[in-house]
């Protein structure tokens, strides 16, 4: 059972955040608050005010600072894609480099394309911990995999109401050959990155949360091409 | 000089179409006819009327039919991604499987996700031949590579006016490390697929060719996610 490796106290992988026991059910059953579904998980980059030493935002948990120091093997003060892959693969099943690049693309500072600093790391790490907790909640038999219906519910609980036709396309790549999709945590993170990344970009253009936006051809390409290029 | 391999008469790679000597210059210098730049190359799927035997559209060149028969190694009547990769890699430098999947994604019948038939093959093959001719035209020193300015001109000559900021992101992945992008034919095709695929999708929503379109969140995801999923 690969999942038990999550809980190694020596692992550099993020531990699940402390959630109140009923917070999930409460969030799941509350009515939709905007076109996009539930309110979003707090996964965006922190503001640049209120820093503590070492470049971390004020209030960063000591565990995150320690994780950063463990992951930053060359002591450069920054995390590159191989350090991140190594760290996540030690805690979870091996992470695909594609997922790692997508993670770094969505969390990195736009002015530094190849690595992430302490603030971006803290945001990425707490987001992954949140997603891991969601994944574990839906992986009821602790097999290390969830199926497509569980993915749909997990996305919804995170605030993403993906239309059924899109959802079918999204999960098609995880088909195990028998018409049934199975996702390990790596694939789950990849799906979330795609949905979160595109939704966040679209919402920037739909300030009123109406569910539609007028896009110029240029802005459409600007929204999507960085995504495709990072995804390599 | 890898390029001479294009011209092997035994290769299954597409040969350049017969263009009138001045057609390129004529096309290049004519004024823009819509927001998106020059008129498009005839690269879309042929209509389903007027078929000749073997499932090819009427008027398909005998060379394309022969190429199909050479590429279809298992004589299934369909081309899969590995057959296509093998065929293109024998004529050109080895094609990346990512480029092959993107090609198949953009040319395949929407109801058959894993292979292409004669009609789709004919469209793909003639499109590649057209792009090869463009590539050769811009590869003035016959090195088998073009640089970013030549790519920009080539895209423009094919009808794609990519905004400068997007263009910078697009070519960033082909940087040779010295801040200078160099693209072989495989990378050139990949760039064109990305730009053509996204532009075609956007134009479907911009019937009046005004340069902007109102998109719903659902239709935005539907336009982009298949692209990301195929790109794997």
TrEMBL record, chains A, B:
Matching CDD domains: EFh_PEF_Group_I
Annotated segments matching region Disordered: 1-56
Amino acid composition bias (Low complexity), ranges on this chain: 38-49
Polar residues composition-biased segments: 1-12
Residue ranges constituting the EF-hand domain according to the UniProt record: 59-94, 126-161
Keyword list, A-Z: Calcium
InterPro entries according to UniProt: CML48/49/50, EF-hand-dom_pair, EF_Hand_1_Ca_BS, EF_hand_dom
Name this polypeptide is given: EF-hand domain-containing protein
Organism: Hibiscus sabdariffa
